[in-house]
Amino acid sequence: MAQEDVFKKIVSHCKEYGFVFPSSDIYDGLAAVYDYGQNGVELKNNIKQYWWQSMVLLHDNIVGLDSAIFMHPTVWKASGHVDAFNDPLIDNRDSKKRYRADVLIEDQIAKYDEKINKEVAKAAKRFGDAFDEAQFRATNARVLEHQAKRDALHERYSRAMNAMDLAELKQIILDEEIVCPISGTRNWTDVRQFNLMFKTEVGSTADGASTIYLRPETAQGIFVNYLNVQKTGRMKLPFGIAQIGKAFRNEIVARQFIFRMREFEQMEMQFFVKPGTEMDWFRYWKETRMKWHQALGFGAENYRFHDHEKLAHYANAACDIEFRMPFGFKEVEGIHSRTDFDLRQHEKFSGRSIKYFDPETNESYTPYDIETSIGVDRMFLSVLCHAYTEEQLEGGETRVVLRLPAALAPVKLAVMPLTKKDGLPEQARAIYDDLKFHFNCQYDEKDSIGKRYRRQDAVGTPYCITVDHDTATDGCVTLRDRDTMQQERVPVESLRQRLEEAVSLTSLLKKLA
Ligand code: ATP
Question: CATH number of the domain at 402-512, out of 1.20.120.30, 3.40.50.800, 3.20.20.60, 3.30.1330.30?
Fold first, then answer.
């Protein structure tokens, strides 16, 4: 199946099974805004828990914070967002559609990569075991031609972005003959800058009202609380502050479902270090964060680092962790070495001294900062994309199963009576009432057992148990595994211990040790 079709199926699966709904659905939705349904909110909370506990529980020098969405407007002046949080936009006059000029060019670069990969795949098939990929890439004429064009474009694009040369960005789009995917034409406007922050007003609308912004990142809430937390928590460098919260960006192009939203959630951790040690910590956090992703068992080949060439105004090193989505490798998390930029800016704009007194060296200095910043929604999407599987079963039947890591699954266990009579529902309820204190269980007695299994597969429930006519006498139930579909008889009293081990977040966190 084409990857595009797979993605469409995932989007409709999300709606059909209560994971993600378009916002204000009965009014036909609101672009790039989504609501999480009964299963989505559980999965999302589990992702957040996995992140939070890996940060705050497993590191004795990282503490949490929950700062407000509204902040003093000067914060965004100091951070540079008022002046520089812009995307270059371009319109197609025929379709009236708006695009990010940088994204159009990056897609074009990806097209060259695709062409090269296709040549390599074709040759690999032709030569079989004897294929030497490195040699092929270094010598094949067609590959070299695509590579040269790609590199030239990349170089020109990087230069234009670094200089924010809007005329040059437009010229690249024209020279590369990039067309609007809707109208198919090259009738482009000039490229313009567009600030992504949402504005609103606090106070009455009369004279006293002032303009404030919906925060475009949670990070600034951490920086302005640096002193509060450091002093009240008596934190010593290096230490980190972690926060999960909503962020808002007026994205020009809202595409790919919950990949790019206008209201989304971030999990950010700022790690303050002694100046001069930041590159060691940057490497540490790159590795630590990659380990966190890979502990989910989705396969190392589905992740890669992407080092930034164009650095943001505040960074001296930056790297993304990308995940293979059905629409290509995409950024899920950013790790940035932000230097002392933010604390210094707030010091300058607030007039307050934001320094760390180092008891070991008896000096005061502004700490450097390493940021790890991951979007909850993008993480959610990557988990779903990897989990969604269509399987051909024996007998020609198919099933859709979400192979979610058990610790993230919305429901851990479905408890089912085989039939709705002979006291089976009462026995099943009793088991449910006992286990519900330990993990998220669901009681289900409607429809045939086969249908009930399919329903649970579709939401990723790792285990189902069935109470049958023997349960009352042998004290056992049938335990069914989502992935293998194997069934075994298990004593009711062993269920809790057996499942807790398999579905708990603790087991997942232990993989990080
Ligand atoms: P992009 O280049 O995709 O716009 P970014 O580099 O601007 O992303 P950051 O500012 O580094 O993103 O934000 C950190 C993380 O927040 C991203 O890695 C992503 O997971 C998430 N994120 C950013 N913008 C959005 C959005 N509009 N919708 C959903 N998640 C987002």
Answer: 3.40.50.800
